[in-house]
Amino acid sequence: MSTEKIVADEGPQLDFSTDMSYADYLHLDEVLNAQHPLSPDHNEMLFIVQHQTSELWMKLMLHELAAAVSCIADDKLGSAFKMLARVSRIMEQLVHAWDVLATMTPPEYSAIRPYLSTSSGFQSWQYRSVEFMLGNKNAAMLKPHSHRPEILAKVEAAYRAPSLYDESLRLLARRGLAIPATHTERDWTQPYVASDAVEQAWLVAYRNPETHWDLYQLGEELTDLEDAFRLWRFRHVTTVERVIGFKRGTGGTSGVGYLRKMLDVVLFPEIWKLRTDL
Predict the structure, then answer these.
(1) pTM of the predicted model, to two decimals?
(2) Which of 134, 88, 104 minimizes the C-alpha distance to 228?
(3) Of 98, 133, 186, 274, whose CB is crowded by the most CB atoms within 10 A?
(4) Contacting residues for 198 by C-beta, under 8 A, at least 6 apart
């Protein structure tokens, strides 16, 4: 059977002169015309598309994280679990995105690097917002956005709000577990400090999962999330080293050296430590 006959037999709508099409709904003209290479090099398109698609995934990640934090604050854990699982899967997509960029060789990147000037993924306001929502607070990271007041306001909102982990601990406290007040009412802009008391509270849930099943599941959702985040960071490091070695980053950091230091940041420390102490 010919493809023409298959289409004719299916009877799909083919005229969109007055109706909304797929491209209309997705605003594909804007999306597909947002790539503007500055160099004459063929490989710059890969570099642009990889980073733009990552930013789109991060937009969805922020959407899901904000909703998950709100659900945890409202004791709607079933919905929060679905959203957190989705965030973990998004991070898996971002891990594999580095595989595509890793096809760019050092000479290919060197051909486009001068055209990047001082632009760098280090300046991604969406990535910074993700980090702030996951609890890695650092006031210095607001500065790259000070020239864009509307963007700064978004990043600062994530910086000043309770993180995903903060809201999770407040939930444990509402459920009667012994979370100290220093960890339920504090200056949310300050980096999280691990607490033995918080670990003991999590251990109650982990030692009695039948009694505290949803809190136990929350702990595992957070573990999945940080596990995926670590893999995303690690793949970033190895890709950068593969493409530029130990050159300084375009944004001014030491490059691989900086990224390796960030691998040591632990977002939900008590949930990892309790595995040794169970």
Answers:
(1) 0.93
(2) 88
(3) 133
(4) 169, 179, 180, 183, 270
Contacts of 178 (CB under 8 A, 6+ apart): 197, 200, 201
Which residue is it, tokens 């642009």?
Answer: 48
- Amino acid letter at 50? Q
- Record the tokens describing residue 19, joined without a space: 């109706």
Cβ atoms within 10 Å, residue 256: 21
Q: Are 239 and 101 in contact (CB under 8 A)?
A: yes
Q: Using one digit for the tens of pLDDT, what is the confidence trace for 131-164?
A: 999 999 999 999 999 999 999 999 999 999 999 9
Per the CB < 8 A criterion, the answer to whether 137 and 190 are in contact is: yes
Rounded (5°) CA angle 216-83-69:
75
Cβ proximity of 37 and 48 under 8 Å: yes
Question: What token pair was written down for 74?
Answer: 């409202």
